[in-house]
Specification:
Blueprint lengths: L12 H29 L96 E3 L5 E3 L14 H13 L4 H12 L5 H13 L2 H12 L3 E11 L2 E9 L4 E6 L4 H7 L8 E4 L12 E4 L1 H14 L7 H22 L5 H21 L6 H15 L1 H4 L13 H17 L5 H19 L4 H9 L10
Parallel strand pairs: 3-6, 6-7
Antiparallel strand pairs: 1-2, 3-4, 4-5
Helix pairs in contact: 2-3, 2-4, 2-14, 3-4, 4-13, 7-8, 8-9, 9-10
Length: 470
């Protein structure tokens, strides 16, 4: 029997051709998948909705969409500025006498003062608790009846904390985002007020409970507004992902927490149901279900999406997404200039930049496909959305009351994310809703020029600051 191995059969031409076709298809799919994964890795806060904190230490340098104005950085000519200035009536005056004469060594005691140089030091007084004792006197009448004085309002226990202590605790917790433990430690070390984390939690709970009327007033003002912004963000509560929903204007902020992100959470906020004004939001689909409202889609969000497409284009190559982004930025600049000067938007420039945006979006549709990879389908959906929702994206160009972006809402709810970053997640949904109620109060008061601590003192005294009803 021969040990020579059998000669393998040689593939035919047709078999080789079929193999090449199969390998080419596999290679094309692999290249598409690689491009998709590279795009996911390249996502940053600049070209997606990821928060800046997710960029890590390798975050890209900031790149503003604003054009250069030619002005130097910092305060401009005519800006009043702010610095520490002397006061006319200091609390303490200390006179410092010179030593002997520097010329002959004679004592200068009793000699006339020729000049006084003033120097003032601003410092905090020694911080210590201020304790007020209320003595409820009881007197006996000639008839034998004894009558005791009534305690003032708010003095309900033999020993208790006053409204300013409560305001300080809530201010550090909800205004400066310290945890309950760190809030208690800060008050103990700074002013000698011994508190526990449980006491801080009880103070915050009472403060939130007293805001029922305030939240109702803010909700009514927002529901009757002409233009509002709406947004949502995730928050870890009790170890699970919950959602913070926000509705706001330049004067009012309403924030609440809900287990659901969609219409259930939006409805629980109680603003968009039946709303007939203009709501500014991103392109998240549940907002579009509120058909009684008019919609302005956030330009800042779509610019980040277009930036991601432009980043993936070959260097130096023309990209439809870059043209679309440039047109949107130019349209925004037109409206800003018109609002600043009080003149109408230039109709010729408006038409020209709108035409560039429309052409770029149509080219994007032809260069992408809904049946490709996930990345390709997302780019196709973006181009189609620019065409289908053009009126909603450019509504700000026809009504200068409407902002082009939803940055105001993002700023209002960013404080919630900052609290989570500093102090971690909240343990209960009730505590999260209490925190959101206090943030609604502080944000709205700040927008009306009311400092946070005085507003919290009013709240602790039982009569919270209330916005005017419109």
């Amino acid at each position: 029997m021969s040990d020579v191995p059998p000669v393998p059969s040689v593939p035919s031409y047709d078999e080789l051709a079929a193999l090449v076709v199969s390998l080419r298809a596999d290679l094309a799919r692999a290249l598409e998948r690689i491009a998709e994964l590279e795009a996911q890795v390249a996502r940053t806060s600049r070209n997606s909705s990821k928060p800046p904190s997710s960029d890590g230490l390798a975050k890209p340098p900031p790149r503003s969409l604003r054009t250069k104005t030619g002005r130097r950085p910092g305060g401009q000519d005519g800006h009043p500025g702010s610095t520490l200035r002397m006061v006319a009536d200091p609390d303490v005056r200390l006179a410092h006498e010179p030593g002997p004469c520097t010329g002959c060594g004679t004592s200068l005691s009793g000699r006339p003062v020729t000049r006084t140089e003033r120097r003032q030091v601003f410092d905090l007084p020694e911080l210590r608790p201020h304790v007020v004792e209320h003595q409820l006197l009881e007197r006996e009448c000639g008839c034998g009846t004894r009558t005791k004085a009534t305690a003032p309002d708010g003095v309900d226990a033999p020993v208790q904390y006053g409204p300013r202590v409560t305001a300080a605790a809530v201010y550090l917790y909800a205004g400066q985002f310290l945890s309950k433990d760190r809030t208690a430690t800060a008050l103990a070390e700074l002013v000698g007020i011994p508190l526990s984390a449980g006491t801080v939690a009880a103070m915050a709970a009472r403060a939130a409970a007293d805001l029922t009327g305030f939240l109702t007033a803010v909700r009514e003002n927002l529901a009757g507004a002409e233009v509002i912004g709406a947004d949502e963000t995730g928050l870890r509560v009790a170890g699970k992902l919950h959602w913070v929903h926000c509705a706001r204007t330049g004067k009012y902020t309403l924030i609440d927490c809900h287990p659901k992100r969609g219409t259930a959470g939006i409805d629980a906020l109680g603003v968009l149901t039946g709303f007939t004004g203009v709501v500014v939001h991103d392109a998240w689909a549940p907002y579009d279900t509120y058909t009684t409202a008019t919609h302005q889609l956030c330009v800042a969000h779509v610019l980040r999406e277009l930036q991601a497409v432009g980043d993936a284009a070959p260097a130096g190559a023309w990209c439809w997404a870059t043209q679309a982004a440039d047109a949107l930025v130019a349209l925004h600049r037109l409206t800003v200039d018109a609002a600043t000067t009080g003149t109408p938007v230039d109709p010729k420039a408006l038409a020209a930049h709108t035409r560039l945006l429309r052409h770029a979006a149509h080219i994007g549709i032809t260069q992408t496909s809904p049946r490709g990879t996930t990345l390709m389908a997302a780019r196709h959906a973006l181009a189609c959305r620019l065409v289908d929702r053009e009126a909603d994206y450019l509504r700000f160009t026809r009504d200068l009351r409407i902002p082009a972006d939803n940055n105001g809402s993002e700023r209002d709810i960013r404080m919630i994310k900052l609290w989570q970053k500093v102090s971690g997640c909240l343990r209960t949904l009730t505590g999260a809703r209490q925190f959101c109620a206090i943030r609604s109060y502080l944000s709205t008061a700040t927008k009306h020029g009311i400092p946070q601590f005085p507003a919290l003192v009013q709240l602790a005294e039982g009569h919270p600051w209330m916005p005017a009803t419109t």
